[in-house]
Amino acid sequence: MTLGQSLKSLRNKKGLSQYEVADKLGIKRGRYNSWENDIAKPRFDMLDKICDFFNIPMSELIGQSEDKMYVSPNSSPLSEKDEKDIAKRMEKIKNDLTNEDGLSFNGEPMSPEAIESLLEAMEYAVRQTQRINKKYVPHKYRKENK
C-alpha cells in the first residue's frame, strides 16, 4: 500500500473529508490531496503530525517499503544551512509567482490551491536537487586511490 492509499484509508475510516483533515493538520486541501494521490510526499515532521492526528505509529502509516524512501542510507541529509538556503529560494519563488500579474496555466488564471501545489512540487524538486548535489564530488576534489 502506498502512502497516499494509507492516508485515504485512514481518512475514510474516520469519516472525514480532505478539507477536514487538511484543516486539522494546518495545511491547504490541495497539499493534502497531492499526498493522497501520491503526487507529493509530506516532510518527515508532517508525517509525525499525521501519525499523531490518526493516533498510529509511523510504521503503520508509511510501511516498510516506503520507510526506506525517508530514511535511506544513500540519501544525504540536509544541513541547517541547506534548509535555510531552500527556504530563501522558495520564498523568492513564491514572491515571484504571487507578485506576477495574470499568473495562468493553459490560459486560465491559477487558483490559490494550484499555486500552492506548484510551490510544493517546486520545493520537492529543490530538495531532491540539493540532496543529489551533496553526493556529487567534482573530479578535481576526489581522492585518488593509487
From TrEMBL:
Gene3D superfamilies: lambda repressor-like DNA-binding domains (1.10.260.40). InterPro entries: Cro/C1-type_HTH, Lambda_DNA-bd_dom_sf. SMART domains: HTH_XRE (SM00530). The keyword DNA-binding applies. Coiled coil: none annotated. It comes from the Bacteria. Keywords: DNA-binding. The keyword DNA-binding applies. CDD domains: HTH_XRE. Residues 7-61 form the HTH cro/C1-type domain. SUPFAM superfamilies: lambda repressor-like DNA-binding domains. This is Helix-turn-helix transcriptional regulator.
